[in-house]
Each structure stands twice: as structure tokens, then as C-alpha cells.
Amino acid sequence: MKHILGIPYRPLSPYRFASVTLVVALMIVLASVIFTNHLVRELRTQEEQYVRLWAEATERMIRAEEGEDLSLVLSIIEGNTTIPVYLLDSAGQIIDTRNVKANGRMAGTEELEELYGPIELTIEDHGTTYRYTIRYDESTLLTRLKYFPYVQFAIILIFILVVVGTLYVAQRSEQNRVWAGLSKETAHQLGTPISSLMAWQDLLRTKYPDDRLIPEMQLDIERLQTIADRFSKIGSEPELKPEDLTAIIRRTLAYMSTRISDKVSLSLQDNCPTPPKAEVNASLFGWVLENLIKNAVDAMDGVGSVTMTLSEADGQIVLDVTDTGRGIDRGLFRTVFRPGYTSKARGWGLGLSLSKRIIEDYHRGRLFIQASEIGVGTTFRIVLEQAEDSGSAA
Questions:
Q1: Of the residues 108, 124, 142, which one is the last residue of a structural domain?
Q2: SS (H, E, C) the chain
Q3: Predicted local confidence at residue 4, as pLDDT
């Protein structure tokens, strides 16, 4: 919770901002559509009145006698520069048009019935009656006005997408800086006590060379060094090199098997025809595996099995981590990777989020939930590009 002038407020996420802005945009577009439709109706009525006036002027010009002043009539006829007009004879054939090219189309005989009108003209000439029909289309201005709200909505939508994209990038950059700063500070804080422990361990080894507990202390110190090294790599580009994933997985399983419940079994199924190699940082990749195993153990309440299955497909290495836990609702497949989300009473909700960042940001792979069923279990899947020397090794 942040404060402005002492007043608490909760910042909007890019997704919530997009939702709120989209609702406001829809309200603006709805108001614009209503107002524009009102204008369209008024303009269409004015165009109809003008076409009728144009028809009367045309009829007056045809009936005009020789020497009659037709300047006003001609000004009305020539004044129509926007409304497409079709003059038809009694057989329905087009005998003259006006402003048709300006509207961008020429109506065929079959399409004439769809136009506005008809306006009938009846002209008597020396005892002969001539009947004409006038049909007219919407002016270019009226057509553009009808589509204006949709163009407006498209512009607003593009603006929203740009703003949301900018906010998302800024928020992601801020999160990355927080991750990196926190991780490096943690590594720095661990450095001093680890150095002290190493000195004490050397002193104890010198004084008690036969003590069986000192090697165990050495293992714990090495573990702390590994943890500090992992935190120090967050926020900087880690060194990647071709590694045999089978070896990393076996080391991780051996380490975790002594630190989880005896009622949880860990196993590996290697279905790869050749040693599965990928460009990884062994320390960070092992950290991801540990997080997935810990997450699985928590989901099983300390009783069940975790199976890691390795396979190859289309130049990629696929690692499935399957547990027999309580399962995850499909609606939470993406949510579980968000920082702070946790289903445990105690927990920071950072393990899966950190693991996804390590795989996708540093290793250019993918980490996602492949499948899950409530009461049956969950399968997390890691997909990595196969190292180039894997094929040559075969």
C-alpha cells in the first residue's frame, strides 16, 4: 500500500488499468455512436430535402422555355457536388448520373433498388408525358461520419495497448530491479558469515582432525556458498554451457532425498536415446529443480511420489516433474507463477515465480503447468533447446 499526501492508495496493475480504461473507452464510444447516429439522421434528412430540391430544379430546367432565366436553377443543380444521384427513365435504365465517381462506386441496375428514393418526375412536352425516377446514395461525408465512432474506438484501443504495454514493461523492469537488488544484497549479507564459518571450520579441523562432524559442517558451508552464488547470479547474465541434465537431476535428487520426508519417493525416468545436453547454468538450473520438488512435497503434505521424466522432441529437451499432490485448478495455471501467490499458511510465494524467471529469462526456455487434476497430481514441464553438441555426441 502506497501513500500520496498521507492518503493510502493501491497502484493499478497494467491489467487492471487496461480493464478500467477499456470500460471508459467503451462508454466514450457508446456516447459517440449515439451522438453520431443523431447527426447522421439529421444529415440524411437534409440530403433528402436537397435531392428533392435538386429534382425540382432539374424538372424546372427541362420545362424551361427559350430565353427564360435559369441562373438560379443552374446554381441549385451545379451546387450538388457531394450527393451521388442517378436519373432513370421509365424503363429503369440509367440515363444520367452526378457525383457517382466521387462516391467511389457505380451502382448497377440491380443495386438501384437499394438506394434512397425513388423521387418521381413527370414532364409534359407537346402532349407527351415523360416519367423519370431519381435515386440517390449517401454522400461521402455521411458515409465517413457513420464509421467515425469505430475509427475512434480503434484509435482509443491502440492507445490503450500502447499505454498498457509501456506500463507492463516499466513494471517488469521495476520488478527485475527489485529481484536483482534483493538477490545481490542477500548474497552480500551471506558472504561475511560464510567466510567466518570457513575460518572456524579450518580452526576446528586443525584442533580436532579426527572429529567426524567437521566434514558434515564442511558440506553445510559448501551448501551456503552455493546458495550465495545462486543469489549473486540473479540480475546478471549467467554463464551457460552444455550440461548433461541427467547428471544435474541426479545430484539434485540425491541432495533433496535426505532433506524431505521419508514418505516421499523421488525418481528419474530418462527416455532420451543420448545424454540430454542443454545450454544451462548448472547452479541455477538445480535451484529450479529444488523449488519444484519442494513445491511438490508441500502439495502432497509430505506423502507421495515425485517423478522426473526426460525426453527429446524436435530438437528440444522436455523435463516433466510430476507429483501425486492435491492438484491445481485450471484457472490458477498462470496465477501460481505470480510473485507473492502461495497456498501455504507460511510462505513468500516466490519459488515458482523465481523458477519461471530463471528458465525463461536466463535459459530462453519455458516453464509451465502441463497438466493437473484435483486430487490426482500436477505435472510441471520445462522445455529447453537441445545443445548443438548433443547431436554430434550421438
A1: 142
A2: CEEECCEEECCCCHHHHHHHHHHHHHHHHHHHHHHHHHHHHHHHHHHHHHHHHHHHHHHHHHHCCCCCCCHHHHHHHHHCCCCCEEEECCCCCEEEEECHHHHCCCCCCCCHHHCEEEEEEEEEECCEEEEEEEEECCCHHHHHHHHHHHHHHHHHHHHHHHHHHHHHHHHHHHHHHHHHHHHHHHHHHHHHHHHHHHHHHHHHHHHCCCCCHHHHHHHHHHHHHHHHHHHHHCCCCCCCEEEEHHHHHHHHHHHHHCCCCCCEEEEEEECCCCCCEEEECHHHHHHHHHHHHHHHHHHCCCCEEEEEEEEEECCEEEEEEEECCCCCCHHHCCHHHCCCCCCCCCCCCCHHHHHHHHHHHHCCCEEEEEEEECCCEEEEEEEEEECHHHHHHC
A3: 38
Residue 78 lies in a domain: yes
pLDDT tens for 44-87 read: 888 888 888 888 887 777 777 767 777 887 888 788 888 888 88
Determine, yes or no, domain membership for 226: no
Specify the pLDDT at position 247. Answer: 94
317 domain residue, yes or no: yes
Q: What is the mean pLDDT of residues 141-145?
A: 82
